[in-house]
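Good day; I would like, with your permission, to put a structural problem before you. A protein sequence and the structure tokens that stand for its backbone fold form the material at issue. Thank you for your consideration; the sequence and its tokens are set out here:
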Amino acid sequence: LEEYAVVDLVEMLAYLGLGALSVQEGRSFMVGKFGQRIMHPAVSIWDDGLDPTGKPMPFDYEGVPKQRVDLIKEGVANAVVYDSYTAGREGAINTGHALPAPSSIGPFPTNLFMAPGDTPREELAHGVERGLWITRFWYTRPVHPRQTIVTGMTRDGTFLIENGQVTHPVWQLRFTQSYVDALNAVEAVSRETRLVPGYLSGGSLTYRVPALRIGQFAFTSATEF
């Protein structure tokens, strides 16, 4: 998965359950999982509005200073973000992640990062006997939020990998896949990262992510012409 596809995974997971309100309402995939490994140990995701390599935003929309929050730490479900309302409900620390009021989704991580690995980007396909090189996803929609099952399509170029080499283009594909399961099947992470806009936010939020090699992903059909 190129970075534009990876950012869809990261932003969708933020929408589906990395805010405290979704946990308090019992609809987050993090419910009952804190302290447990739910993804590959190579996967670490955090939010940091002060990191200059992202798109810095030092305060949230309530004027509260942002804190770094390690959401997924080496594959372990670690934490979610809070605003003043959700922090007050359970006596937690406000991490400075309020959205503009009124907001029905509660606090949201707006400055996401995913840790790089040690594989050169151009070598991600090495060792893949037969696979797909995915440029981007679009029209992604949740099917089962608690299980992070999402359906969507590929876009802007999908290519066949044969014996470690990208050989030729294939038709665009539809998928239905658990994003947590996908990130549990990570085989390699690029050492380079890229700052790319999120799809759900309409490009107003940007996140820094690497490219990934994932061992399995459930493509269900080709899109129709």
User: Anything to note?
Assistant: The two ends are 23 Å apart (CA to CA). The chain is about 15% helix and 35% strand.
